[in-house]
Amino acid sequence: MSENILVIQTAFLGDLILTTPLFREIKRRFPGSKMTVIVNKGTESVLEANPWIDQIIPLDKKQIKSSFFGFWNFCKELRKHNFTICISPHFSFRSSIISFLSGAKRRIGYKTAGFSFLLNERKPRLLRGPHEVDKLLSLIYSEEERKNISRQPELFWKSESVSGIQSEMKKNGLEKGNYILVSPSSVWETKRLPADKFKTVSKLLHEKTGLKIVLTGGKGDSKLCEEVGEDFGINFAGKTSLPEMSYLMSGAALLVTNDSSPIHFASAFNIPTLAAFGATIPAFGYTPLASRVFISEINGLNCRPCGIHGGRVCPKKHFRCMLEQDTDRMVEEGIRLIKG
């Protein structure tokens, strides 16, 4: 019997990209199955051309958090799909409720999920140690089965989705391998390397390699990117859709960023990655999966990590994890990564 599978992944964009190996492996594990994925509204275009997914349902989290009836109706509609298996890599209690109300007989998720008693196959999830992709794959595979499976995320796009960025790149003289992408933002302030440090690193990399510097981010990051790339950078912040961001990333010589979603875009295309980690630590499992990587961090600070996501302000008020980052070393490592 072919399965009708529901996957719930309404986490941040980076988590969704890291779930792409799981989508592929679900189709391999359950040949002939149909797969529907629920994602956070606004992130769905990153999966637009994914060959493994049959249907995408965007979920407006704000709406379901504010209206019980909205939530109830959403779940009622889901039931009509007659899902046989529900896999929930997301661990909010709402995801467990959606899983239960979907009507799927098999409901697979993590033991540590909120309301995990509503799931009937609960897998352990270590907070530290394994990479996030391994944690996700553990929902359907044993450790032994995972040994030879590719952990690389996969991103695809439709040609009509990237024609805009192609002409923008032409206008700015950007070709595969002749530019460095710099993404200085993050949702969480304590995950951000200060703008002046990003500026120093970007400017020196530009001068020493002759490569162009392209700044990327969301609409709200335009000012920050302007500051970082003042006089030498090309500012694309707020000007790219998610498929366009994928396309832009696929041609970069190097990515310079924080512990945030651009890392995972880069991993999908094996782009060398220089990442500054501050409030968070690599052991949480969100490190780059590209083959050439350097993680810049301040070791020996007993206050790290100060949270799973980092926070708005440094709880110790000194922010040493970012203020003490060595920009000279970052430039040196960036050049090494580009040269391979």
Automatic annotation (TrEMBL):
GO terms for molecular function: ADP-heptose-lipopolysaccharide heptosyltransferase activity. GO terms for cellular component: cytosol. One of its GO terms (biological process) is lipopolysaccharide core region biosynthetic process. It comes from the Bacteria. Keywords: Glycosyltransferase, Transferase. Pfam families: Glyco_transf_9. This is Lipopolysaccharide heptosyltransferase II. It comes from Leptospira johnsonii. The gene is rfaC.
